[in-house]
Please model this.
Amino acid sequence: MEAEAPRLDPMTEAALKSLKDIAVPEPISWLPQTWGWAMLAGLLGLALLFIGLRRLRRYRANAYRREALLHLLDVEERMSDPARRHEGIHALAELLKRVALAGWSRKEVASMSGSSWVRFLGDHDDTPSEPALATLLDDFEYRDDGTLDTMPSNVESDLTTAARRWIGGHRVST
Model:
């Protein structure tokens, strides 16, 4: 059985009925109170948008480099097989020319060969000129297949390393 609540005296009941609820202040706004903060947020948003668009543009501009580096893996595989080494060396020279054609105008790059081609690669490279690439483009490219198949295996790794470095690090003036 439930116990009945004790009866309050009339004065206490009147006092309890006259009580009002506690006045709660309005919640604090998360919005800035001055226009300066809004301007700063807008400028920060524009800066982030600018940086994002610039990175996207650079990513798209370097698509040919990523594709060439993937193709270089296939060339490297061919060069590691002594029976197909000559194919790999010719494909490597072709790949370097295709990369240059993607970065510069056809008129500027297509007619180059030999020492002018080697000089062009060296002029547009961030790292010091690679003797392995110079040897490839000046000498190996024009040798017969039998000579290339008997080439030492360390030359193959030097060539692919130098080509990878040039593809990843050459400077294209825009």
Residues 63-169 form one domain. Residues 42 and 96 are 45 Å apart (CA to CA).
